[in-house]
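Input record (one chain):
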Amino acid sequence: MWESARLSFERLQGRLQQHGAGAVRLAAQWPAHFVAFDLLRLAGTSTVAWPYWQRRAALEDLFTERRLTAPWALCPSTTEADTVNEWLAWTAVGLEGIVFKRLDSRYEPSVRGWRKYKVRETQEAIVGAVTGPLAAPRTLLLGPCCSGATTRPGGCGTPAAPPRCRRRPATLSPIC
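The corresponding structure, as predicted from the sequence alone:
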């Protein structure tokens, strides 16, 4: 689902919780696409014993043969590192990361065969106040953290040198 030129998982979750007339109203207001990434049955035949590359080829053929278009979508797939790096830069539109699987893997029910690399943007900050216990705070009041300056309570830098804040680049964290 899209909202303000970004993917919106929150809107999708909201739709999943509705039933009846509320679900119909939200479906009209926030249309969703069905994004297929794997194929477990084809024409009544189980494909779970097939390697992923064969299931993916069958899925792509199905989309071509049936001329499926929106709201049906085929999840992009690649084995090219440059393409993956480009996709990882799409966080501005709400992409959380990528999932990957070995091309020769079979589908195994109840087994995590996919792995996910999630993009995480980080920002250094100074904690100015905490509500709740320190071991499990409820809220934090944060201020910018500055580079090349001495920090002190209530601010950073010196009056003669205004704070220069830096932002760390996005980092990847593997989630298994």
